[in-house]
Amino acid sequence: MFGPVLSSLWRRIDWRPLLIIAWGFLLLSPLRATGWLGDDLYNASLPGQWIHRNITPLGAAASDATTWAILGGRLSPGIQIWKDLAFWAFPTLYWYKWAQLAITLVALVVFYGCLRGMSAEANFAALVCLLAAGLVQ
To answer: Which pTM was predicted?
Structure first.
């Protein structure tokens, strides 16, 4: 009874995003074993700074964005909000690394969707994303 329905549904499911996620996870999961890298070492101290300054993460992001805009001429409030919310939501190294991995995999699948939306052939779009996962690593 359900044979033809399930068969046609299975043919419609695009398996390529699952392959991209699996390949990206395989390549990027060793990064979870690293410690704080680069700016993340400083950013890991942000929760303590918020307590010391008696400010919320969004207040700190607004303050940082204003400072960067006035002193450095950089109009990038999104990165300030993202940084402060990320270190508020994931204050420990373990969860921060998992979140980085998950967000990177989501970005690869969105990239695949964008390529498909621009009329790229499915296999070519998947190949580009598999290569991108290797380059991100």
So the answer is: 0.74
